[in-house]
Amino acid sequence: MNPITGSVSIDAQNIMPIIKKWLYSDKDIFIREVVSNGCDAITKLRMADFSRAAGCSVRVQVDKAAKELRFIDDGVGMTDEEVKTNINQVAFSGAKSFLEEYAKDEDKENSGIIGHFGLGFYSVFMIADRVEIDTLSFRDGATPVHWESEDGMTFTMSEGTRATRGTTITLHVSEAEAEFLDMWRVREVLERYCAFMAVPIYLEEIKEEEATVTGEGEEAEKKEEAILEPINNTQPLYARAPQECTEEDYKKFYRDTFHEFDDPLFWIHLNVDYPFKLKGILYFPKLKEQFGGIEGQIKLYSGQVFVADNIKEVIPEFLMLLKGVIDCADFPLNVSRSFLQNDGYVRRISTHITKKVADKLTGMFKTERESYEGFWPDIHPFIKYGMMREEKFAERMKDCLLFKLTDGKFVTLGEYREKNGERIPDKMVYTSDAARQDAAIRLFTERGIDVAVLDQVIDVNFASYMEYALDPEHKLRLCRVDAEVDSLTSSEEAPAIDENKLAALVLEATGKSDLTVQVKALASDAVPVMLIEDEQVRRFNDMGRLYGRTEYAMPAKYNVVLNSRSKTIQKLAEREKDERSVLLTRQLVDLAELSRQPLEAEAMTEFIRRSMEIVAMAAEL
Ligand code: ADP
Ligand code: MG
Asked: What is the pLDDT of the chain when averaged over all its residues?
């Protein structure tokens, strides 16, 4: 046999079911495809004959009575030859061949033409029983063409009647997809996918003709009153040069795009041409409620056409806590997840965005520390989450990480360790609830030791992250105010006290055998007893509660520290054990517990009862 070459032919009977089923995950994208073809037709006209393209638009007509959706543009239209190649050959992109014909090399890159693959048009068969094309080419001497098909596999083509340049696509919407004949539904899809397309798009409702008889003149008048709803902003802010945008522009774009009432805190305008085309604006939103989750939204566009929200392969997951718009001009409109995961181009975009965000934050920390501190309460959950998720981000941010102290000041970890390191080497003392733990906090602040406020949900995890990731020597320990006693001891002479005797007393009084008891000389003689809870065990259990996995909880580990410099403890140590010393010891342990957290129901009732008894005893004296 002689060697031959040729193209493999694709049979529409085989390919259509695949297009219908697999190519598009959401049916509503057919609107995006048809509108973007209309936009392309106008962009092409602009390239071929600029002056004729002025004022061109795409009109979307919803005609519920006729069960039709019409897309009308006044772009280049198609000759019969063009319909044959561009429409009748699936996967033959007229967009590509047009560029070959008209565009100079440098224009091809920046043409703004959306189509690539020559598959988009056929998505209409997902929702239509019958599709008609009426088109008239802008080329001199062209004749109008009518094309129609019921299934996208067989078609009829004939001379058409369209009298003006452009194309009308009429979709006879199938019964099952009647939702696409509702104005709100079409509007919603248009607003999502077409909000920033570069050609004006209008939505128009064709009202059912009234049953009552009206005069000819009135009828004609009604037709002229068509209300065209503008859909899009053809020059979205992100596509403009940053130096042309004002603060108010950014805020307005934020409010309009995300339907927000609050202003954003600050933003980053991305504008890259090389090595990839990337434009966008990332906003840092205000936190809604103090302990509430943060809900961001990153809208991804390609050449001003919406692709999807929150594509985690392109935008690092932690950045999803922000609100923003990203436009990658080279990004294909229809892509599979597995493509994204394995694509180097996509990874580079993601890395670039992460770097820009870190640059903005570190820059602000260095040159505008005061405003950075002002933003901190809103942005810290985002930064902490980002650091835990992305090593590179953490590397960049670790020196700009702030800690709010109980006195309202902000310090970095370095600053904290520098100031407090001598008294509490390698430790950071923190509170998870400044109001409840006030008594315990004061023990430290009165000695000049700073207490950091780590009271957000994310801080439970972040404390552990800091210990293993933020200290190269792995010496750093975070201790809640009720988990640290070493830095509260005194070097002053204190009376020797029988530790074993007191330990036995505490164990009997509390009825708990799993406590450890220690006698220490504490700096403050006003504190007789402290209850020290093991930090790691408590943190593990806090995390379990956070994730609703309480079945793995470990038994809490407590250390009762008795202050040998307290008169009360000295008295207890001297006294022979009796009912009264047991009673007082129980009261002291409860008081220690109360200074770190409220007592639970039964313990509280018992505490009140016992307090009454002690008051009565005191009244007797
Ligand atoms: P793509 O847009 O990726 O090229 P489509 O399947 O969306 O593929 O469209 C196929 C081709 O049909 C287009 O490239 C274009 O040449 C032609 N076409 C579709 N709609 C129109 C229109 N409204 N006006 C002019 N040409 C159109
Ligand atoms: Mg297309």
From this structure: 87
Residues 272-290: pLDDT tens digits? 887 788 999 999 988 766 5
Q: What is the pLDDT of residues 103-151, one digit of tens each?
A: 666 565 566 666 655 568 888 988 999 999 999 999 999 999 999 999 8
Q: Do domains 4-230 and 237-396 have the same CATH topology?
A: no
Predicted confidence at residue 229, as pLDDT, reads 94
Q: Whose CA is nearest to atom 2 of ligand 1?
A: 115
CATH class in words for 237-396: alpha beta
Joined together, the tokens standing for residue 156 give 């009829």
Considering every ligand atom shown, identify the ligand nearest to the alpha carbon of residue 96 and give its number: 1
Q: Is the CB of 166 under 6 A from ligand 1?
A: no
**Residue with CA nearest ligand 1 atom 21:** 37
Give the whole-angstrom CA distance, residue 120 versus residue 40. Answer: 12
78 Cα to the center of ligand 1, angstroms: 9
Torsion of CA 27, 33, 36, 40, to 10 degrees: 180
Domain ranges, ordered by start, for the chain: 4-230, 237-396
Could you say which architecture CATH assigns to the domain 4-230? Answer: 2-Layer Sandwich (3.30)
- What's the pLDDT score for residue 49? 83
286 and 272 in contact (C-beta within 8 Å)? no
Three-state SS at 546: helix
